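Late entry, evening session. Most of the bench is empty. Finally got around to the prediction I had been postponing all week. Sequence below, unchanged from the version circulated by S.P.
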Amino acid sequence: MSAGNLLEKIKSLASKYHKDVVGYRRHLHANPELSFHEYNTQKFVEEKLKSFGFSSVARMANTGIVGLLEGRGKGKKVVALRADMDALPIQETNNTDYKSRNEGVMHACGHDVHTSSLLGVARILSDLRNDFEGTVKFIFQPGEEKLPGGASMMIKEGVLDNPKPDVVIGQHVMPQIDAGKFGFRNGLYMASTDEIYVRVKGKGGHGAMPHLNIDPVMITAQILVALQQIVSRHAKPSLPSVLSFGKVIASGATNVIPDEVYLEGTFRTLNEEWRDEAHARMKKMAEGIAESMGGKCEFEIRRGYPFLVNDEELTSRLREYAGEYSGKENIEELEIWMAAEDFAFFSQQSKACFYRLGVRNEKRGITSPVHTSTFDIDEAALEIGMGMMAWMALKELQS
């Protein structure tokens, strides 16, 4: 089959299955499950893959699923496609027929879109299995939103083996981009992420007699200001780094100095050597300041996801394929983003590309960012999203 005929066939199948995939998405959206508890989602995906004619469907990492689809030829190239399945601990405030039925749980990051779209790709490629050579590995992973990340767990259990994929491709919604458009970036794209937990200990007492106390609030204030110098005075200006603290608890009162202050924060960057250096500097600085002021500091860093890098050659090819499918005018260039994604684990192990699917529709008021209680998508994005991913997979098998 010629490339032109194959493209039109994929578009036809994407249109044919669009209504069904919208149904998948609405079912998943109404029944969200938190990280590493995606039991019903796993069962749903498993049943769908088998109904599409997949003979190889396996559970992995407790709540993950991997499906293999072989074309007419074996021993050829292997392309892996990945979707995440977990939801967030957010109470949805949208008023739709498919609003979350699970109290305090919501698909606010579009993982319902990723999963349903990849199911659409699986259905399209299953119909076309006699039109291509090679193997497509479908990875439905749990726990993207929570350390240690479902991607790392699946990799440890061998998701990148038997067969080993030549490339791994991931898609993620982006409400800043209009539905029908896509975003790509070559090279460094998303940051590593580490969680910081700090406990500053002093000696509490009456606020009117500070000379008798060791004030952990003042120690904490000094630590917070000083730690910012790690980024502003030790990181290379050309190297993006972010240090933010979102929780500070000092359970005193207007006239009570507490015994301790508790903090939580995050550190993000795009270089592993600097990441390690920054960890050591932050810990040494915080502990030193606390000691110099008569207190103590317990400084814990929980290492999270690595930085995400898009393979230069693969991303360039996929951008070209996307232009063929949707028109070059619908391809946007992405900036470096200091958010994190556990797809980064795949990018550290294999040639990988993580790109963005536009889901915005201002005329319909669909503009809310991810991780908000009002996040939703223009479901027209599902048709072009699954069609283009199927097209990219087959083009990459031929490359």
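Two things to note before I forget:
The chain has two domains: 3-190+306-398, 194-303.
The mean pLDDT is 97.
Will write this up properly tomorrow.
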